[in-house]
Amino acid sequence: MDPENKPQGPSPHYSLYQREVFKRGGETGVLPSFSVHPEELQESTKKKLNDRGYFYANSNAGLGWTDRANRESFYRWRIVPRACVDTNTRDLTTTIFGHKIPVPIMFAPIGINKLYSPLGELVPARVAGELGMPYCLSTASSQPIEDVARANDEGASVKNESNSIHQYDGPNGGDAKSPRFFQLYMGHDDEITLSLLNRAWKSGFDVVMLTTDTWQLGWRPTDINIANYVFYYQGAVGNEVGASDPAFMEKHGEELKKDSGKWIDHSVWHGKAHTWDKVKWVVNEWKKISAGRPFVLKGIQSAADAQLALEAGCEGIVVTNHAGRQVDGAVGSLDVLPEIVAAVGDKMTIIFDSGIRTGADVFKALALGAHAVMVGRLYVWGMAHEGVHGCRHVIRSLLADLDITMTVAGYRSIREDVWRNKEALRFSASGVPPGPGEHAKL
Predict the structure, then answer these.
(1) Residue 173 pLDDT
(2) Catalytic residue check, 322
(3) CA distance 431 to 68
(4) At 205, which CATH number?
(5) What are the residues facing 215 on neighbouring strands?
(6) 93 in a domain, yes or no?
(7) Which residues are annotated as a binding site?
(8) Where, by residue number, does FMN bind (predicted)?
(9) Which among 50, 103, 142, 258 could bridge 120 via Cys, Cβ 3.0 to 4.6 Å?
(10) How many other β-carbons are positioned within 10 Å of the β-carbon of residue 19?
């Protein structure tokens, strides 16, 4: 951990963030203001948010068995450490949709971020920009598309000594440009859909990600208990994308003044499923708008649907069960990842989502064939504690965790040593992980 004895390699030494925390505590007595242990972090978030904010981020479908299945899947895959490997430099970089990115981790689309911090989506967008990581904006954002794009650009332009250990420089000098994703909830008014896509493209979002598993919200009892649907409350947040959209406001502006749920009910969680024919339509429209930039389908849990997404013209998919928030009793996303990779992994970019909590989780998803992973609840918990600083602290901790995991496990390069390397893992069919809070008893 001696920073003077760290050879320069393809990636920054993200691991030095651990040393930074230790040194600050040892020399000045200043400790982190909250724990980044995932279970402790989730628990402390309860004290930072009111019930509406906390449960909106953490409610699961039904009994929460799908959420638990996600974590059990990670538990059953175990890393095989290798000895005496030169990991003095690491290469955590990868390429996604033509962009070289510093780490195979991106910010997942999460709506209504103003529930967690007054600046809402401006917080994670800025942190993603600072770290050179891909950011994905939700249609259910509580900030307009254009404002989030500016925050992401401002983060990318930050250059000072304090972030020098984690800022990534592109291969030709200067900051690498990570792809900016726009997650689309597609309503049944094509004019509004096209308006959203055009706004996203003009704001520098060059990949579209259509969510297919949330035409309407799943049954979430912990939200039912407190009528937790913020869009219907006076002074509601979450309408900002619609309220700033010219096509929507021309048609429904007056209605929105009377019914704060008009945007969300009409264009986001409208309750009317689309078909593969409609997917093909929106893929073609995005291609015309963006001059052929990639289109990604989010919500894939079977090899058959992955193949249909390929046939519909999608360049990528997100293997996800919406973090267990939509279908209770469903398969864990990591359980189905290998069969999906076998079906389309040589033809599509595969992004993994659902249940990522640690650097080891990232490692396992990549070893099973994902090109990159998405992180959601972790950054929300961080921003709920301390806004930009809290979000940055959690993500830098995750990067340090991944970097250290590769160092001590004996794997130097993501692309050469980890990705699609099933020899790096062993599967154990027995055992389940400790339940929430039980780690403290072990």
Answers:
(1) 32
(2) yes
(3) 13
(4) 3.20.20.70
(5) none
(6) yes
(7) 56, 109-111, 138, 183, 185, 211, 220, 298, 322, 325, 353-357, 376-377
(8) 109-111, 138, 183, 211, 298, 353-357, 376-377
(9) 142
(10) 15
Q: Find the helix or strand (DSSP H, E) in which 78 lies.
A: strand 77-79
- CA separation for the pair 348, 340 (Å, rounded): 10
* pLDDT of res. 236: 81
Q: What is the per-residue pLDDT across 418-427, written as a single tens digit (0 to 9) for each? A: 999 999 999 9
Task: Tell me which of 252, 322, 371, 393 is the catalytic residue.
Answer: 322
Burial (Cβ within 10 Å: 0-12, 13-18, ≥19) of residue 222: middle
Q: Which helix (H) or strand (E) segment is 400 a member of?
A: helix 377-409
Structure tokens at 17: 């963030």
Block residue for tokens 């999460």: 110
The radius of gyration of the chain from alpha carbons, rounded to an integer in Å, stands at 21
Binding residues for glyoxylate: 56, 185, 220, 322, 325
Parallel, antiparallel or unpaired: strands 425-427 and 135-138: unpaired
What's the rounded mean pLDDT across residues 224-233?
A: 93
pLDDT tens for 287-319 read: 999 999 999 999 999 999 999 999 999 999 999
- Closest Cα to residue 374, out of 134, 73, 99? 134
Give the count of domains, the chain: 1
Count CA atoms within 13 Å of residue 253 on its CB side. 7
Tell the burial category of 442 from Cβ atoms under 10 Å away from its Cβ (0-12, 13-18, 19+). Answer: exposed
User: For 129, how many CA atoms within 13 A lie in the half-sphere containing its CB?
Assistant: 21
Banded pLDDT at 59 (limits 50, 70, 90): very high
Binding residues for FMN, as ranges, are 109-111, 138, 183, 211, 298, 353-357, 376-377
Q: Are 321 and 327 a contacting pair, CB within 8 Å?
A: yes
Note down the domain range covering 360.
Answer: 3-426
Give me the percent of the chain exceeding a pLDDT of 70.
Answer: 94
- Decide: 418 and 151 in contact? Cβ < 8 Å: no
Q: Is 431 inside any structural domain?
A: no
Examine residue 315 and state whether it is found in any structural domain, yes or no: yes
Q: pLDDT tens digit string along 140-196?
A: 999 999 999 999 999 999 843 344 433 434 333 334 468 999 999 999 999 999 999
Q: Is residue 442 part of a domain?
A: no
Amino acid at position 224, single letter:
I
What residue type is 439 in one-letter code? H
Q: Mean pLDDT of all residues in the chain? A: 93
| Helix H or strand E encompassing 71 | helix 65-76
